[in-house]
Records
---
Amino acid sequence: MSVLFPTYNRFNVAVAEAEGTTVIDENGKSYLDFGAGIGVCNLGHRHPSVQKAIEEQLQKYWHVSNLYHIPIQEDVGALLTNNSMGDCVFYCNSGAEANEAAIKLARKATGKTKIITCRQSFHGRTFATMSATGQEKIQEGFGPLLETFQYVPYNDIEAAKEAIDDSTAAVMLEVIQGEGGVIVGEESFLKQLEAICQEKDILLIIDEIQTGIGRTGKSFAYKHFCISPDIITVAKGLGNGIPVGGMIAKAKYRDVFGPGSHGTTFGGNPIAMASAKAVLQTVFQDEFLEDVTSKGNYLIKQLNEKLGNNPFVKDIRGKGLMIGIECKSDVSEIISNLIDKGLLVLNAGPRVIRLLPPLIVTKEEIDQAIQLMIEELAKKA
């Protein structure tokens, strides 16, 4: 019997090593990784420049705490703010912590407490971020949640207008819902929501935990929709496997988080910063992002051409290399079978196959993955 809490329904894969887009199990079997650690290893496993940066930092120092200046934090912060709407950064260790920071900043900045989120959203598993998450299955069994969150249907501007009142501090959402089914936001919904927030002095928080760091072909996914949020949160792809998160905000909120207002022991750790710096220097190049867009367009085009007529497939959607294949019934057996065939994929709810390949994936590997999916989904046609 395992000594670990059984909090995960694990697949029968015990990983021994990984490199690039390939994972190898303890039996020597190779897998093409179209999950990337749930959108974490955007540059693939053990990317040379990231590994080199980490190894160099290991030779210098590992931790001193945020009581002292850590110069590399400024380097990473400049890369984040120069490629976003933001001006200042708070570092932490995960997406949930980044969203916790955003919730605290919004409440402290406005003096109000209510935060509106969307149904089927996912923002984390701490008590505040679980309360922000619009999915009952995440909340079940934990007793009363924080009462200051209200959920509205995604892409429903009238419902959002109705929910907003004088106690509303912020609206918090993903521009592409990841765990909720790879649901893409409608630009009209997002732009109207931004205008309402600006009019009523409400913060607009965009959760970029899964969509950020090049995943959709732009540095951050909100840029697809011509909006400028007050806060964005990042994690997952930021460290390429080294735990790190961040909250990026506009300058007018800088002094709200003064000394003692918020903190973390490990946030901005120099090893995590070394990894993040190497990641951002690679991903935030125009040529790299254009390549992600090209491969994403190729992937969704091929999926539509080769699976669009399959009666079991309801919809194929996404942006960049964040794709959802919605099916007519549960996909858990399909995902298990694909893993048995050597393709690691994810679900996003019971009926959606989610594809999050490393951004370095090749078109040949995309073709290989599609062929395996064609074969498996043909059994359901």
---
Amino acid sequence: MSEFTNIVVSGKSGAGKQPRIDVLVEEYGLEQLSTGDIFRNYLGKFNKYRYDGDLEIFWNDDKKQFISDDLIAEKLGTNNQDILLGLKAKYFVEKGLFVPDYITNALFEAFFAKKNYRNQVLDGYPRTPEQSKFLLDLMQKHDSKIDFVLVVDNTDERIISRTIKRRICPKCGKVYHLEYKPPVDGKFCSKCGTEVIQRSDDTEEKIRSRLREFQEKALPALNYLKDQGMPVVTVPGHLENFTSENVRKSVIDEIKKVF
């Protein structure tokens, strides 16, 4: 059994969070709970339902909110809550709009409940002060807790330089770096053999946009947790000698200073 109940991992996009999350998962027997995976899960369930009607019929434009869940279920032909959540997520994603906190919170809570609100490394959540408040209220409601926030610290320029060299396997999702963790022969996934690609959002312009978003949204979310007395463990996102053991040691050493 893990000595920690749940851990939040925070940091700028491209700071180097995944290798540190891997350490937490392996060292403490936790699972990674990623906001991106949560959205993909519910969007996938809605897509599999194969509804091909207009999503606008579920939205009340005068009140700027969805119609009632009972009406949605009636129009959709199912009251499956996972499919209803997927519909709400898709409505905003399809329009390229920011997904409101109340939708993100609902998706997160439904998925987190399946994990009994325990033994998770929260990746990508919370991202706003409102989500931070929701998370702490959720922990109190279900007699669970967040033990600490692990912040992966890195400079903007290092992040830009490192991220533009990131590659991902389009088949299995394994992540590589052309310098620090190169794929086989510089272009093939070591897990499934598929040729790796650069993500479309790994351009300098989009990276800088994500860095600004961290300052405007994610940093206030982190500060809210700190203001509520949440312990914060800060680890370096850049190591001169990047090896799995050095990453592990840099994380464990900083955690031991606090616990």
---
Amino acid sequence: MQFTKMHGTGNDYIYVDCFAQSVPNQIAELARTISDRHRGVGADGLILICPSDQADAEMRMFNADGTPAEMCGNGIRCVAKYVHDHGIAKKRTLQIASGGKIYRMELSTHGGLVEQVCVDMGEPILAAALIPTTLIGLAAMAESIGPASRVVNVPLTIGGISHEVTCVSMGNPHCVTFVETATDALVLQAGPQIETDHHFPNRTNVEFVELLSPREVRQRTWERGSGETEACGTGACAVCVAGFLSGRTQRQITVHLRGGDLQLEWNAANNHVTMSGPAVEIFSGQWRSK
């Protein structure tokens, strides 16, 4: 099986071109094996680039533990780069399907190769039941949305410690908490506990965010099914939304991640979140299954 390794702000995945070869068998097992950083290629997961009847390509994503995921913001930028640079669709504007949705992307190129991608991530999902989470917003802060409510600045007790959280879905679930310092102890201990907390029936990604200014934050993410990653694109989008909803940030922010920076905006006119950042191809190779 031919593969290409790529990363967006350090969030690295193994990509398989299913235009040129068949979809691999036993995908969950392949994702676990190839993602292993000691016995495999090493990555945060596996992404298949597949033909689509409705878009230029479809992204199918699997976490490092083999579980499927609905969306990956850094991953989809790399899919756009691969689709353009490898001649599948040589266009400056692309549409990529993922998780039943179609995402529009604007590509910035240099020397004929994509360097930056701006993704229209669509509208954030704020209704608790659709995120999904069973946390209920405080009466003074919850805004009714049909039978559900927004979860904004809601206390969540983990390991005897209360965390103030805001929950957002960007096609996948996120739990955002603003902290004074995102320490290893906090991210690596509270992260997996929040991910698997009973208030999140599908588990959740967890963002620990340091507020630097109303336009600038620093983010560390514990990703569902992968552990801490260098960056999380959908997480950065969730942070942009959560920061504004909780009164901490403006609608347009820079998010500093361990692997680099992303530019985010939650547009007041159409309610869409846009994310801009790099996409990098590292190397290609051949995986020989046992």
---
Amino acid sequence: METQRYDKLTESWRENLARCLRCGLCREVCPAFRATGRERFSPRGRLALLQAALEGEDAAEDFGAPFHEALDYCLSCRACAERCPSGVASDVLVLAAREAGLCRGGLPFFKSWVYHLALGRPRVLAFLTRVLYWAQRLRILPAALWFFDLPKDLALPPLDPQPFDTRELGYVFPPAGAEWRGQVTYFAGCATTYLYPGTARAVVDLLTRAGYAVRVPTERQCCGIPALANGDVALARKLAARNVKAMEGDELVVVDCGSCGTMLTYYYNDVLDVPGAAAFKERVKDFTELLPPEEIAGRNDGKVAYNDPCHLARGLGVTAEPRALLSRVGEVAELEAPGGVTCCGGAGAYGLTRGDVFAKIGGEKAAAVEATGAAVVATGCPACVFYINEALRRRGAKATARHTAEVLNSGTGGS
């Protein structure tokens, strides 16, 4: 691969790559490496291939498909960046390499077309959701999934014909609590808005009962992380700029998804360098950071397992708050050792295209849920809800995954 194809990999990121010691500490925390055991799917292996390309080797000819496949296998979970003693941001380097690949036409035409048509147009996303809703109702969902280039046996949750923001855009939900705590802007992510609108309504209920007025911004668009993860940095930056402008002001911006939150903060400011993102970053909070535990009515719903979403824990640093809130409704059961955060194998659409990694990592997660004996596992990411449920279904387990907001709001946290 010609070196100029990596021009967008700035000098600072080249220096970041050069700091890699090849120590291999990243391998043990990388989901792709743990699932496959192949060096080229480890962060160290990917960076070695990238370094060879930067030094002038024709990676496409010398390494062939394994080069591009190595980049595709990264889940962007940031476990390697967290573990690296030299501060190498392997995930960002992979994103930069994917962008260079995109310049060669790396994204399939249909996928690129859908991204550009839908990600910046909430009404289009709402229309596509309704198509899937009717396909589900008419029992022709496998055909619809095939049309959208998705696995035909995909177990989608029961869809709602009315996505969350169809009627709520621009609306301000008044506080219901006795104590006024201020007004916040609620950024409901795409998966929440279109696949799990009940989660969005639970977040609004929890915040308003805690004394917040909740505003739904009219010009909110996709955070852009699907585009960024696939190398379309230009589209990701465009969506980022629109969102920063749509939510300008001094209100806190509340998210229900760790990936959206990490995109709005770390990726907008530290990676994409979007104008205004530095001040915007300081205003973004996960909804659990705003809820006082005493506002959650005490219950005894038995064991509730908790799964740390990668981006919520690593990107926003939110780990203690969900546990404190969930402890009000039942006994919080841990899925792994203290401080451990392991990916569920989903990572957006990754679990749909890399079934080998998801089968291994998702299977381990499902086994960990079963070992707790909890009937419900709570998690702060709609993608984690989807993929953990899929892993549990494949295992034949009786437990179900639910968003933390729904567990807190419904009173059915476990048994």
